[in-house]
Amino acid sequence: MLRPDVLDYYNRGGEQNRLTAGTGLLEYLRTWDILDRTLPATPCDILDVGGATGVYAAPLAAAGHRVCLIDPVPSHVEAAGRLPGVTAALGDARDLDVPDASVDAVLLFGPLYHLTERADRVRAWAEARRVLRPGGVVLGATIGRFASLFDGFVKGYAADPFFVGLVRDVLATGVHGGGPYFTTAYFHHPDEPAAEARDAGLAVRRVVCVESALWMAGRLREVLDDAEQRGLMLELLREVEDDPSMLGTSSHLITVAGLLTDS
Fold this sequence. Notes:
Helices cover 41% and strands 22% of the residues. By secondary structure, the protein is α/β, with parallel strands linked by helices. The protein starts with a helix and ends with a strand.
């Protein structure tokens, strides 16, 4: 189901602590804020597709939701299956072993990163539509097209000619070739996620930036460590999160969609 290099990346713990500090923590806080304002009322049935070791599944279950996590990495499934209130199974986002119209929310927080062919990404969106109940919601996370360009200069990777080659490939095709920097992935242009969801038969409600340009802020750690500043940042980002001019600056976007019959 996964390319060998992608599977190897996750088996080596590539995402183990990514969301616990710095830009990863900003991504987590913003994603959770978006979830909290978008998901149906507790309790609901949530399918967390590509949910890894359960970084979102665990708090969602603790909040009272019924969470089933599906992931193609066996070690992820094993870890997630030990979480209280979470069931976990191996699976492929393009072919879910889940009944039609059986869940209230589908999270695609991973599959759209590693499906480099558009047809496969549309198929994953279509599977989410198939299993969604009327009134439900799908949230799909994507990596921004310009993330590696910005990251190269923020973190100094641009001193490596190999990394510069990766950036040029991403800018031209959207495909990030991996190597020592992340792994094979697809980086979406801001216009693409909504178009793919619509082609899968979904009604797109919103496309929002996750981090915005603040992930590049030099004082980010200081802001995140200060409860008052962190709260203010989250409050103000809510006000601009779906401004089209913000989308290209963000490392990640979240596309929120539902059934056409609910529109």
